[in-house]
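Sanity check

After download, print the first record. It should look like this:
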Amino acid sequence: MSEVNIAKRKEKCENCTKQCNKKQGENGANSQEEKDEVNGQVHEGSQLLLSACLSCDGCLSEEESLKISQQSLEEVERVLALNKKCDVSKHKVLVASVCPQSLPFFAVKFGLDVTEAAHKLCGFLKSLGVQYVFDTTLSAGFSILESQKEFIQRYRRRHHDSHALPMFTSSCPGWIRYAERVLGSLVTPHICTARSPQQVMGCLVKDYFSKQQKLSPEKVYHVLVAPCFDKKLEAVREEFYNSLLETRDVDCVLTSGEIHYLMEQRKVSVEELDSLPLDHVLGEAEDVALVRHEGRGSEGFLEHIFKHAAKELFGLDVHEITYKTLRNRDFQEVTLERDGETLLQFAAVYGFRNIQTLVHRMRKGRVPYQLVEVLSCPGGCLSGRGQAESEVGGSLDKALVQQMEEAYSSLPVRLPEVNPVLHTLYQEWLQGQDSPQASTLLHTHYRNQSQIHTQPPHMQW
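Expected structure tokens:
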């Protein structure tokens, strides 16, 4: 994160950081919740919303701050500069992976369709010295398939495992940080263990791809382009670091906005950029049309798992999903019914005001859902502050988000179940879908970090 952004965010939430160390017991939190929720609505009042908390690095440890400082354009440029020198021992192969939610940002900025914008972005990255540019839709396919499988397993053991349901999705690092550091054991056992698309891509690049290229993983420098600053925090988690090889699955996360800033800094015009096809993990660059997964502005975990569970558990084919809006557009539910009986009830909960309402209801045992897709950004991943924040005032650029949503929805949908590359990689890379290798590389674990850190951040509800 740039120094300018850090300074701006600190200034914006200075009042919030003063409250971070206020410890509040379980009884106090519940009491505050009672005051703050009126007719199902959570009101801000004097409470500290996590959306503000996560925009500030005030509660990061010194070690975390150091790691985050290395997630920068300056660090990438340092690696590129070393590559230009003659010291082969310090040379690294640069690999960039681009999130599909970042591509609509460049499409809007470039005034092109998503596929052509991806080719221009690939041309720019390769002009810098990046050797391979991938799209993370492939790794998202792994995350979706593993999440589907885990939901079925949890559903079938729900009667003898109180932590089986509801299952919460795990691809949003802002939500995960909140769950681990604030909510603890109330929520962490319910979080799906499937790795996020970002970290699956990290494994794919550092394990499978590096072996294919006959490279040691530490000789590969993996940059990920994402719509969200919180992805930087995810990349530096200790479980995604190989201490033996001293390498991370993802070495550096840059936001879409940071990449665009670099283009402006270098005075690069879109017209002069080469249009280069993206690379593919299984082979050379191919001019293959980009696809997306179902869901508005995100990877569509809810829709994929809902349809899969309907078929797997009840033998029902669901082609179209109807969302019922509850509190607002960012709190919706979908229901599967048969003969008047509710079989499945899922919810999509975006933004921390809605998340707080959900958690309050969970404390009271009033959550009827078997699965909840949780994202910290209102509107989903396209609204990530690394690309959707206006240059004036730091607020959400709604016009830009709407344009990105239109660009994203223009991409054709392809189900991960019918992607032949995924099936090939399950066999060649992981030795099967249910292998120990698949379990190790495609899953992780989440824990109550308030029991680990001596001075955890506390939230006032």
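If your output differs, re-run the checksum step. Summary of this record's structure: Residues 137-156 form the longest helix (20 residues).
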